[in-house]
Design goal:
Layout: H1 2-11, H2 13-45, H3 51-100, H4 105-150
Length: about 170
Amino acid sequence: MKEMLRYFQEGGVVTIFIAGVSLTAWYVAITAWIRARSLVKMLAHKAAFGHRDKLFIDANILELERKLRALATMAAALPLLGLLGTVLGMLITFEVIEGYGTGQPPLLAGGIRRALLTTQSGLWTALPILLMHEMISGQTRKAAYEANLQFGQHDSQTHEELPVYLS
């Protein structure tokens, strides 16, 4: 726990923002994954659907698409927050150089460390969120495809085949 507190202290306020966005993204990703998987399973096991079922499925697919947009935004924002921390860390380094010159390596290292910690945090948190986005997107496309088949909205002339990785 002390290591984590030190990490946030050294990374500065940007690291706290990165952690907040990352936790929010994981919450959205996990809830979307559960919804997408249950929707795909429901479509695979139910033979006949009524009008209410179609509305329920359509609402769930729209909700999943909304969550996917939010995940994409957060996955894009995390590295940018890391870049912001990098800029702030380098500004600290330049302030040290301005005040003390280059003869104080420990002071210079603090600003450079902050710059690198925030960059690392932004990248490490964005990559798994991006992968989760792709997995949930695949499940959502699969659910939409299955729903279209169930409700007779399949047009064989214009519809592409479901990619193998979605089956």
